[in-house]
Design goal:
The chain has helices spanning 16-19, 24-43, 138-150, 170-176, 179-185, 191-202, 265-269, and strands at residues 58-73, 76-92, 100-115, 118-123, 154-158, 164-168, 215-223, 228-244, 247-263, 277-280, 284-295, 300-318, 321-337. The protein is α+β, with helices and mostly antiparallel strands. The protein folds into 2 domains: 54-64 and 81-203, no CATH class; 205-339. Residues 1-43 have low confidence and may be disordered.
C-alpha cells in the first residue's frame, strides 16, 4: 500500500477566504495521493507467470486424453472412441551450460478404444497373454504397439527460457514397432513437430504481467491419424488466485474459439486415383471449456482440463462420385500433478 508522508511545512491562514477553502498544499497532496493510488491499482494485482524446471528434481503426473468421433455419410453412421491414461515420472538432470535435460518415463499406460463396434483394452500393469501379442490380428498389433509405448522413455533438452532445443527418444520407439505401423506414425514423431508441441505446452503464459481478466491466444497444431491435421485457436483468460489444499494456485480459463480440420496433401497425394479422398468443411466449436492451475512457487502446472466439441460437414469422393456427410469430434484432456 502506498502512503504519503505528512507535510513538513504548515501554511498559515492569510485571509478568511483562504481559510475557508482547502489550501494549495492539501490540494497538491490530494492530487499526488490520487496519482499514486491509480498507479498502485495498475501494479497491485499484476503477476508475471513463468513456468520453469528446477534441476535434479523428480515429479509425477497422471495425464489422460479421450477422443470421440462420429462420422455420418449418407445413411451410415460410424462411431469410434479412444481413451488413454498415463502415469508419468519426470526427472531433471543438472543444468549444463544453460541446457537442461528433462527425462520422461511412463510407469503405467492404460488404453480403451472402440472402433466400428470392436472393443480393445490395454493395461501395462497386467501381463499380455502370448496369444494376444503374436500374429497379424488388429488386437495383437495394438498390444505390441502400446507395450512399446509403455516401455519407451523420452527426453527433451531446454534452455533457461524453456525453449525446446532437442526432442529425443522417439526414434528408438519407432524402431521397436512393426514397419507398417512405424511408417504410419512417423509424421506424429517428426522431431521438429514434437519440439513445437512440447514448447506450446511448457510455455502457456504470455511474456508480460497479467491482471485478472486479461486474455491471450495460443495456436495448437495437432497431427492426427489417417493424415488429418487439426488446428485450434485457444483463448486464455487469467482468473486470479484460488487456495487449493492450503496452497495458492493461479487459474487460467481455456476456451477454443476457432478450429479447422484438414487432410494432409501428402496422405492423399500418394493414393490411387480411385481411392477415397476426404474434404472437410468449416468446423464449428459447439462447446469448449477448460482450466489450468499453476503453482507459482514451484513454477509448474498443477492441473489442466480441456473439453472441446467440434462439428462440421465433410465429403468423400470416390472417382466421380461424391458423398456428403458430417463429422463430430469430442476432445478431452486432463493432467494432474501427483507429487
Amino acid at each position: 500500500m502506498f502512503r504519503i508522508a505528512p507535510a513538513a511545512t504548515r501554511f498559515s491562514r492569510r485571509s478568511s477566504l483562504v481559510g475557508s477553502l482547502p489550501s494549495l498544499w492539501s490540494l497538491s497532496r490530494l492530487a499526488v495521493w490520487l496519482l499514486l493510488a491509480l498507479s498502485a491499482r495498475s501494479v497491485v494485482g499484476q503477476v508475471r507467470l513463468t513456468a520453469r524446471f528446477d534441476e535434479s528434481t523428480t515429479s509425477r503426473y497422471e495425464t489422460g486424453t479421450t477422443t470421440r468421433q462420429t462420422i455420418t455419410l449418407g445413411s451410415r453412421t460410424s462411431e469410434n472412441s479412444f481413451s488413454q491414461t498415463m502415469e508419468l515420472e519426470i526427472a531433471t538432470d543438472r543444468r549444463d551450460a544453460g541446457r537442461l535435460t528433462v527425462n520422461y518415463r511412463p510407469t503405467r499406460l492404460q488404453v480403451e478404444s472402440v472402433r466400428d463396434g470392436e472393443r480393445f483394452s490395454f493395461d501395462s500393469s497386467r501381463p499380455i497373454e502370448p496369444a494376444l501379442a503374436e500374429g497379424d490380428s488388429p488386437a495383437a498389433a495394438s498390444n505390441r504397439l502400446f507395450a512399446a509405448f509403455a516401455e519407451s522413455p523420452w527426453r527433451i533438452v531446454v534452455d533457461d527460457d524453456l525453449q525446446v532445443l532437442e526432442f529425443l527418444g522417439r526414434d528408438e520407439l519407432l524402431d521397436r514397432l512393426d514397419p507398417a505401423v512405424a511408417e504410419s506414425l512417423r509424421p506424429q514423431f517428426e522431431p521438429e513437430y514434437l519440439k513445437r508441441q512440447a514448447e506450446v505446452e511448457l510455455r502457456p503464459f504470455p511474456d508480460r504481467a497479467l491482471r485478472v481478466g486479461d486474455r491471450w491466444r495460443r495456436e495448437r497444431d495437432l497431427i492426427l491419424e489417417a493424415g488429418m491435421r487439426l488446428k485450434l485457436t485457444e483463448e486464455c483468460r487469467y482468473l486470479g488466485v484460488r487456495s487449493i489444499a492450503g496452497s495458492d494456485r493461479h487459474r487460467v480459463e481455456l476456451k477454443c474459439v476457432e478450429a479447422s480440420l484438414e487432410a494432409e496433401d501428402s496422405a492423399q497425394g500418394e493414393a490411387a486415383d480411385d481411392a477415397p479422398k476426404l474434404e472437410y468443411g468449416p468446423l464449428r466449436v459447439s462447446e469448449s471449456r477448460g482450466e489450468l492451475t499453476f503453482d507459482e512457487r514451484r513454477g509448474v502446472i498443477e492441473s489442466l482440463e480441456r473439453r472441446i466439441e467440434l462439428s462440421g460437414p465433410l465429403s468423400v469422393s470416390i472417382g466421380p462420385r461424391t458423398i456428403d456427410g458430417r463429422i463430430e469430434l469430442i476432445l478431452e484432456e486432463r493432467q494432474q500433478r501427483r507429487e
